[in-house]
Structures are given as C-alpha cells and as structure tokens.
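A reminder from the course coordinator: this example appears on the midterm review sheet, so study it carefully.

Given structure:
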C-alpha cells in the first residue's frame, strides 16, 4: 500500500506534495512474524484535492497469534475505504466511519473465533493515521503508537498514549481496535507548513529512543526520509528493543494555493456564456424560453439536441460575473446535485460532451414554486401542509446525510411538479463538510434573511438544526401566512435581543391547528439551536403524531403555559374593574 513519492508538480498550479519514508523490522522476541503493519497512499488524480494523502500504522498485541491480521486489516482497509467515501464528507467523518467499521469487523472476528472468551488473544491492534488534505493535517489515534511533528527543529508529540498503568513496571492498553464493539478515536486537526516532518512509530521504537534522539536523527537526514526511518529502527534495536519496530515519516515538500481546494476550480476557467434568446443553438442545446431572471442567475428551458430531453440551463447573472467567489458558489450547485440521489432534490444532468462555457445543467421541473402554491392555497388543510413538509424533510435529510447544509430553504427554492413531488433547488448557499474544512467560507447570512436561523445573525456557523429552523418557518407560514417571530429576527443581532423575541402561536392565525402541532412548530423554530429538533425526520413525525409533552403543555393552565399573558389578562381585568368602580363612585 506504500505510494511513491509525489512527482514534480506543475509550476503554474502548486499541489500538495508529501515525501514518505518508512522501515519496519521484526523484533528479536520469540515471535514468528512482524505484528506491525504500515502503509501510505498518495493519489495523483482528483482525489489528491478531494481526499488528500494518507498514511496509517498499526501494532498487533504480543499476546495474540492473530493480531498481525488485525494490524494488516486495519491499515489496508483504511487506505482503501477512506478513498471510497463521499467527496462531500469531511476528513473527520470519512476516517472515523472507516475506522469504526474496521473496529466492528475485528471485534466480530474475535467473537466468531476460538478467542472469543480471551480478547488478549483476539484480533486486536493499535491504530494511528494521518491524512494530509490541502493545507491541513488530520490525526486519528487509538492505542500506544505515537505520532510526532518536527517543525523548525523542535519535536512535539501529537498523540496520547492510551495506557493504563498498574505500577511502574506493569500496564495495559486502555484503548485499541477490536477490544469492544465501539471505539473512541482521538482526533486532531493541525495547520501545515512547508518543511513539516511527521513521524509515526510503534512502541518498539519510542520506548527505547528518546524524543531528543528522534529529533536529532530527523535533523541529520533532512532530505532522505527512508534513511531516517532505518536509522531510528537501528537505534531502537541498539538500545535493547526486542519488540517489532516500525517507523513512518512524511515530509511536507509543497503546499497548494489557498483557493485550490475548490472542486469547481477547473470549471471556473471556462468562458462566461453569451446572451441567449429563444430558438438559439447553444453548446448542444436549443433554447426554448426564459424561466427565471435575476441579478444572480438566468434560467432557460432548453432541449438537449442529442437526447431530446428538456433541461434547465442556469447561467450566472450580472452580480456573479465579476465575482469569482460567487461564481464558485454558483458552480457548486451542480457539484452538489451530482452527489445527492433523492427524488426530492433536483438532479444534475450528465453530459457526454464537455462544456464550452460556464453554466449549470439540471433536470427541468414543470410545476409551481411553493411560494406560488401558498398564494393559490391561502387557507390550506393540515394534510396538504404535512405532505409538503414531509417531502421537504426527505430532501433535507439527503443533504444532511452527505454532511451538507442547504442554508437557503425558502418557498421560492421549493418546486412542486405535476405529480405532486416536492423538489429542493438552488444550492448556491450550501455548506459542504468536505469543502468547508479546506477553504474559507464567506461570512454573513448566505440565505434569505427571514428564513435564516437566528445563530447566523450572531456570526455563528450553521448546522443541520439551522435548516430545521428554516423548515419550521416555512411550515408555520404555510399554515398562517405569517412568520413565527414577525420580521424581527434579522435585526436581532445580539443574544440579549434574541432572548426578547417571542414566538407567536399558530393558533392565533389558524384555529384548526392542534395545540400539540403548534408545540412541534415552536420547538422547530426555537431561538436556541440546542433546543430545536436534532433530526429533521423527528420534526416531520411530530407534525402527525401528538408528542406527550406537547399534549401536556397544551392542557396546562394559562398561568403555567404563558405567565406573562396570564398576568397581563389579570391586570386588564383588574383595570376594568377599577374603572367600573370609579364610574359608580362618581355618580
């Protein structure tokens, strides 16, 4: 699994370049084989940008005759499966999912083997990995191998030894792969600098070679990582190590430019399209008519002349044409659509011929927007509202499973086709985990303010709960024609101001709404994201099924449900009585 050193990058487009060195030797203890295993992978394709460069090292426990299988499996599956995860996922999510899967497999193997009653003889190993993506290093660690970084001649231990000490002489692993059905993985994210040297070593090395000596050997071999790895293994053997000894070294030779992380980089080099009009032939399409126009985009209904299929062509508007950052977000929409497979999310259309201009091609959805539907149905029945909200929720869930946040959910970005299927469109404001970690995101509110979650106005990042807030506002507006906090949320840009916002019950505007359903809406649009629903499916479920807490709240007396309104009513009543008494006394 060891990848070759990186080739010389293009002078015009600097790329991430890592140079590896490694060496491993079987210990002198009474063992038949080396129970350590290590590997690395340095892609030369697009995965270099989307997934990065990876290395991994594992150490089987000495009491097990099969732990070498565990070590080899852990490293091999990590390096293979990590590169098969979604490009939209962050490094953290991708790696942790793969490591957790390997742990489950090893744990299952032990329990299906003769060693199921003695885990010290089962499929158990330590595991440490580094992923270098763009300008950052991501560290994953379980066990007592170690990862160090040498920067400017100073050695720093980055990992923590997962050992439990019984005495100065006796200890055991407190964490390892395969010990239990769940594994806790240490994670660190570190900025990279050119010239950084990362080193991963098993305990057969770091227990016998001091940190000072490790740093000295690395400094003595600045250009030859393999020579440094051999020297460290030899040093450990000379110091009396009889355990398996493995070393991996990764030197950062070159870093990419800051903006090179964008998956849309190549498309940005295309020329902007010309002005289009009906019946015009354009890049393999026949333009039929204009569907939408704004300063941000222009959408045409067109026919693909090769397939005869009707499609929607989305071209950048005047506001985007001179702004590279907005153009990147414009192109991100198609990149996202290609990675989400849901009947409730607009699909990107794959083309056999390369594009000659910068634009986006998606399926054509014949039908009104949710905004138009709301105008046509000013007093909708509860079933219609629930059906639409459930479909939006399914589209949102498809986003959230890919570690994406839509961030611009509003009635204009929801279409309903002729079969009644709801589809989400316009992903220009979307946040993608795998891109956010390696590229700076624009600050401020990217979506429409009246549907944006309150945390955005505090300058905080969004989450899946921010999307849930937007869906809650949409559901509330469908029922009532109003907004749950009026128009005051965008102007409330401090926590104190947001605490003064009061939810207006939907019962005031739509008396047929059950009180427990109003409770679900109130929870979905709570000002505090921690008090909202955690999952969008939970909100959709509660719109149909009365939650006990909401039922109890609805049945509680007014003084318990809304003490302010209760005392306001009492004060009003007393004021009226006083006026009556004064009028009687005046007679």
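Designed residues:
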């Amino acid at each position: 699994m060891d990848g070759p050193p990186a080739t010389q990058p293009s002078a015009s487009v600097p790329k991430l370049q890592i140079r590896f060195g490694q060496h491993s030797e079987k210990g002198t203890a009474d063992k038949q084989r080396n129970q350590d295993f290590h590997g690395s992978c340095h892609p030369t394709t697009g995965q270099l940008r989307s997934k990065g460069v990876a290395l991994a090292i594992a150490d089987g426990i000495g009491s097990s005759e099969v732990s070498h299988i565990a070590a080899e499996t852990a490293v091999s599956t990590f390096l293979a499966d990590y590169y098969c995860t979604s490009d939209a996922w962050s490094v953290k999510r991708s790696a942790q999912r793969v490591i957790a899967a390997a742990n489950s497999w090893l744990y299952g193997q032990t329990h299906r083997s003769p060693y199921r009653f003695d885990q010290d003889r089962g499929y158990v190993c330590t595991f440490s990995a580094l992923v270098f993506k763009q300008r950052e290093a991501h560290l994953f660690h379980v066990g007592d191998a170690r990862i160090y970084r040498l920067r400017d001649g100073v050695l720093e231990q980055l990992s923590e030894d997962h050992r439990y000490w019984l005495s100065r002489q006796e200890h055991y692993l407190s964490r390892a792969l395969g010990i239990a059905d769940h594994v806790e993985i240490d994670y660190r994210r570190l900025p990279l600098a050119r010239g950084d040297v990362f080193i991963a070593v098993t305990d057969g090395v770091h227990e016998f070679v001091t940190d000072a000596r490790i740093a000295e050997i690395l400094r003595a071999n600045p250009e030859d990582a393999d020579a440094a790895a051999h020297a460290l293994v030899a040093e450990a053997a000379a110091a009396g190590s009889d355990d398996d000894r493995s070393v991996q070294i990764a030197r950062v030779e070159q870093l990419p430019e800051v903006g090179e992380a964008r998956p849309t980089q190549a498309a940005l080099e295309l020329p902007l399209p010309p002005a289009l009009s009906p019946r015009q032939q354009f890049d393999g399409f026949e333009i039929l008519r204009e569907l939408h126009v704004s300063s941000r985009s222009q959408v045409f209904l067109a026919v693909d002349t090769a397939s005869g299929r009707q499609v929607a062509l989305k071209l950048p508007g005047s506001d985007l044409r001179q702004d590279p950052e907005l153009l990147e977000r414009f192109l991100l929409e198609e990149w996202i659509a290609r990675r989400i497979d849901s009947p409730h999310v607009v699909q990107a259309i794959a083309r056999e011929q390369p594009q000659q201009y910068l634009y986006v091609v998606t399926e054509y959805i014949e039908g009104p927007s949710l905004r138009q539907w709301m105008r046509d149905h000013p007093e909708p029945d509860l079933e219609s509202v629930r059906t639409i909200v459930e479909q939006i929720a399914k589209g949102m869930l498809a986003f959230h499973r890919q570690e994406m946040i839509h961030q611009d959910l509003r009635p204009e970005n929801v279409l309903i086709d002729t079969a009644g299927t709801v589809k989400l469109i316009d992903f220009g404001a979307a946040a993608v985990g795998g891109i956010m970690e390696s590229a700076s995101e624009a600050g401020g509110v990217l979506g429409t303010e009246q549907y944006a979650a309150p945390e955005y106005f505090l300058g905080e990042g969004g989450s899946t709960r921010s999307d849930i807030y937007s869906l809650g506002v949409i559901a509330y507006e469908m029922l009532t024609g109003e907004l749950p906090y009026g128009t005051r949320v965008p102007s409330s840009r401090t926590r104190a101001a947001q605490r003064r916002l009061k939810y207006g019950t939907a019962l005031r505007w739509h008396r047929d709404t059950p009180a427990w359903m109003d409770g679900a809406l109130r929870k979905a649009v709570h000002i505090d994201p921690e008090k909202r629903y955690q999952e969008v499916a939970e909100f959709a479920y509660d719109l149909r099924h009365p939650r006990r807490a909401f039922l109890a709240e609805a049945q509680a007396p007014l003084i318990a449900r809304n003490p302010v309104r209760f005392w306001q009513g009492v004060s009003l009543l007393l004021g009226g009585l006083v006026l009556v008494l004064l009028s009687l006394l005046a007679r």
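Residues 1-11 have pLDDT under 50 and may be disordered. The longest strand covers residues 245-254.
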